Backbone:
């Protein structure tokens, strides 16, 4: 009987949904293959697909708000993914501020995705300044640090709505309102939030908002940045002037159509998915603690998104656990980074004050649409022997 394969790494990527692939197919073949900038019928067919995707995404994110609320289709700027969108937001705002003579300085939280942290580092390399906002033990951005950054003057503040490693949910509405009152653009990385928790930009006065296709059943290589103020951001890619010059280049029409379809589905199914994912996550954590009583759930003291669980298993290291879980047919990810042969805790867990011995022993389990109770059962059945084996090997190596 073939081994049951269990995929618990949906925060890393998800499979393309059949409905999304079906929507993309006409734009991959000869029906609508044209360049959307071309005026002939082939180009117009491609343009129609792009425009429909813009409308779908705007509506799903809280379109039709009017009076400055909600999202308008023209504010949806397509990118190659979340990383490019984050870079465009952070570096683009910094460059725009420098051109205006405003502070060439950005503020980002200490637990941001590397796409945001690396973009902040790039601003510093360009002669600007980066401010790293500390977080509490539960992962929430410190209000005092944000207020201090705003008082100094920054080109943009960037905070992710849902953390990709531990699932902590930031008080985005409050942070956005604080930045709005200070007259500072606010960027939200919503990659792990959209489709997982209720998201409506009608209620969030953010300037920029990032989504990524492959986290919600669209293909890799497509994402979007909602830009509510075109003057707030300067292009970081230069070319033919497409997308108002904010992100020029011939649009990835099949990917854009796929993203539009995936966003519609994710918005429609969000509440049902959240309920299922939360039940699976809670069951996983309860049962893991039952078979590994000294395991630690990271970030459990604060508000969390329903689809992510970070579990540290003392006396192990995550790389060894991952290897043995993979051999058992179970895919998840680690809360650590292997650099020059040494396992180190992730920057997220370090910023949250998680002790090093727990940081290097962290696993991330993340649920998607196709996960079931049987997946949790398979993990819990395999875990005790794997933990015992890894602990034994670790004890031998550290004698």
Residues:
């Amino acid at each position: 009987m073939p081994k049951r394969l269990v995929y618990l790494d949906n925060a890393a990527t998800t499979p393309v949904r059949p409905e999304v692939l079906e929507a993309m197919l006409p734009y991959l073949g000869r029906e609508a293959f044209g360049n959307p900038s071309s005026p002939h019928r082939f180009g117009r067919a491609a343009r129609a697909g792009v425009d429909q995707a813009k409308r779908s995404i705007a509506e799903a994110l809280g379109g039709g708000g009017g009076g400055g609320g909600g999202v308008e289709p023209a504010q949806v700027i397509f990118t190659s993914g979340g990383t490019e969108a984050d870079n465009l937001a952070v570096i683009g705002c910094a460059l725009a501020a420098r051109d205006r003579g405003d502070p060439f300085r950005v503020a980002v939280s200490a637990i941001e995705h590397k796409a945001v942290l690396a973009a902040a580092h790039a601003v510093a390399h360009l002669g600007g300044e980066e401010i790293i906002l500390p977080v509490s033990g539960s992962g929430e951005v410190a209000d005092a640090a944000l207020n201090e950054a705003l008082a100094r003057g920054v080109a943009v503040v960037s905070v992710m709505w849902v953390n990709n490693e531990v699932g902590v949910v930031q008080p985005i509405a409050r942070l956005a309102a604080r930045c709005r009152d200070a007259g500072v653009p606010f960027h939200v990385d919503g990659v792990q939030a959209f489709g997982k928790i209720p998201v409506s930009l009608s209620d969030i006065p953010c300037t920029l908002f990032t989504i990524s296709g492959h986290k919600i059943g669209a293909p890799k290589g497509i994402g979007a940045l909602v830009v509510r103020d075109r003057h707030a951001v300067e292009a970081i890619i230069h070319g033919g002037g497409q997308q108002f010059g904010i992100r020029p280049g011939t649009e990835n029409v099949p990917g854009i159509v796929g993203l539009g379809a995936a966003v519609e589905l994710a918005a429609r199914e969000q509440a049902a998915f959240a309920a299922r994912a939360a039940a699976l996550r809670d069951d996983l954590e309860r049962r893991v603690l039952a078979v590994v009583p000294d395991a630690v759930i990271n970030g459990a003291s604060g508000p969390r998104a329903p689809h992510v669980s970070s579990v540290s298993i003392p006396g192990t290291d995550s790389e060894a656990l991952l290897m043995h879980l993979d051999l058992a047919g179970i895919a998840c990810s680690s809360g650590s980074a292997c650099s020059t042969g040494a396992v180190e805790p992730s920057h997220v867990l370090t910023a949250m004050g998680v002790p090093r011995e727990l940081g290097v022993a962290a696993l991330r389990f993340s649920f998607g649409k196709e996960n079931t109770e049987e997946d949790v059962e398979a993990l819990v059945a395999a875990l005790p022997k794997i933990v015992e084996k890894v602990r034994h090997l670790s004890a031998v190596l550290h004698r």
